[in-house]
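Q: Structure tokens for this one, please.
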Amino acid sequence: MARAFFFGAFAAVAILVSAASPAAAEDTLKVATGQRGNWNGAVGELGQRAGIFKRHGLVLEILYTSGSGETQQAVIAGSVDVGTAVGTIGAISAFSKGAPMRVLGGETTGGADYWYVPAMSPIKTMKDTDGKTIAFSTNGASTHSVVLAFIKELGLKAKAVATGNPAATMTQVMTGQVDVGWGSPPFGVKELDEGRIRMVARATDLAMVRGQTIRVLATNADALGKRKDALVRFMDAYRESLDYMYSDDPKVIKDYAEFAGISPEVARRTRDIFPKELLQPDEIKGLDLMMSEAINLKFTTAPLSSEQLKELIQIPPRKRS
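A: Here is the predicted structure, written as tokens:
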């Protein structure tokens, strides 16, 4: 009888351990991304809501920043494991200066960022901004490099000003503190529809943006060395989440609208602005052009060698289906 009790108790303990093992196996990753509510920055949020990251043994702690400059600093400091939507030129610059920056994948190729003015502004295009101020999010962000490229390409005597996130930028534009603001859908869609603001330029007006990977997924070299398995699983879950976001599942639009605080109609329009091919993580496109622009805009002084690029860019291969 005692023996039967022993084996019964052992079986009960085994069942409890087995039941607890999935939760115990989950790794927590801290993820920083700029601009809460942006479609391209919602992959972690929507994938986690759908249970995709959990299936890959991951729990994400998602932190939102005012722009990729802040995200990049969090990655470099090692306070987060992954930074999404880090400006490619900023990442090249940081790495060239010895920062422990590594690239896990592409984040945005092309882009939907735009620049706007109040409806009554005399500014019609970027060419009308001599002596004016043009907003970008944070130093080192992709919006920073885009504004500097506009100024250089058009020969403008304009001043680039860091204004933070789209909401803070809108306040500064509408109160006359800055002449030209920046935004990214879904932010500003309602104001554009209502005629309160008027678009004067898109990021894709520049050759350095069209077809180029302007933002990347980044990690810290130390995190990659110590948590490579978890980061590989993160990339697997990230790819699966992207597939889910462009599926016909109605939960996608419902969850995104709720997360971003917008109507389902605006949520659907926002997804349409970002075709799936813009968000593919498996390749960094236009690297030669981005390197050239990093030098032209004085983010770095010389191109990275092939050995340096191999060290910087370490994209885990996609699993074969």
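A few notes: The mean pLDDT is 90. The CA atoms of residues 159 and 320 lie 48 Å apart.
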